[in-house]
Amino acid sequence: PAELIRIPFRRWKIVLATATLLTLAVVGYLQLVAPTYTATAVVVVRPVVTEPFTFPTGTADRSVNMTAENSVAQSNGVITEVARATNRTPRRVRDSLVVEVPVGGQVLRINYTGTTPREAVVGANTAAETYLDVRQASHENQRTVALKSYDSIIATTTDQRVALEKTLPAGGGTNVSRPAATLDRIRVLNDQLSNLADQRARIVSVDLSPGTVASPATFPVPSSHDGAITYLLAAALSGVLLGAILAFLRELSDRRIRSVEQAAEVTGLPLLGTVRRRK
């Protein structure tokens, strides 16, 4: 244990030089490398449900595939819109945009790193809002396709009912003979039209709200140089540790005899006396 303290103190120049070099390297980094700013916007993803105020059951459509939503948040549409808002290339935006998905929640943390605080805030908020717009547009397109399909089926069923009604004898009253099979068929078509109308109404009533920006990016924005003092302290301590290691390595490579014990160990002869040099 005494050697662990004695050797670094004896070779203090190596320790001091190493700590100084590492500290100067960090100072050079802080001076030469421009700081970057990272802004974060938090988006709460909302599932699309037919009855949002009902208690969810095991089969309710209340879950969201967050892996897919992560891909949507980094899609080309979002990248292009952020590039337009920040005046950056899409490649630069793709490198600066990071989307995090916390485990167990339907939340997206959208991080954007820019060269200025304004660029970081604009990039993060634009990415969050564009993601919600893209998601809502996708749901609206799906609903439009579904409604067109129902409208087509309803129109076809209505035409069938009208054609059957034309085959019935004109006039009313109890004396008019009406084919029972035709009436049953018309009744079935009416039931189908009623069910189709109910299903279409449920699709129309679906709330397509994709979610909300729960926490938009705001000023002030954290900078990569905010922890400059911490970096300098870490560099100094690391330099001391590395310098101590270099001091031990230098000690191991130094073959000079510095003590009586080392002389006796090297020569294998007993010590008879000591002659000290006058200073």
Strand order in space, largest sheet: 2-3-1-4
Instruction: Determine the number of helices (DSSP H or I, runs of at least 4 residues).
Output: 9
Shape: rod-shaped
In percent terms, what proportion of residues is strand? Answer: 5-15%
Largest sheet: 4 strands, antiparallel
Mean pLDDT: 86
Molecular structure report:
The protein is α+β, with helices and mostly antiparallel strands and 279 residues long. It contains 9 helices and 4 strands, in the order ααβαααββααβαα. α1 (2-10) packs across α2 (12-32) and α4 (76-86) crosses α5. The mean pLDDT is 86.
Sum this structure up briefly.
This protein has 279 residues and is α+β, with helices and mostly antiparallel strands.
Overview features:
single chain; 279 residues; alpha+beta; four-stranded antiparallel β-sheet; 4 strands; 59% helix; rod-shaped
Spell out the blueprint of helices and strands.
Elements: H1 2-10, H2 12-32, E1 37-45, H3 66-73, H4 76-86, H5 90-96, E2 97-100, E3 107-114, H6 117-167, H7 180-204, E4 211-215, H8 228-253, H9 260-267
Antiparallel strand pairs: 1-3, 1-4, 2-3
Helix pairs in contact: 1-2, 2-8, 4-5, 4-6, 6-7
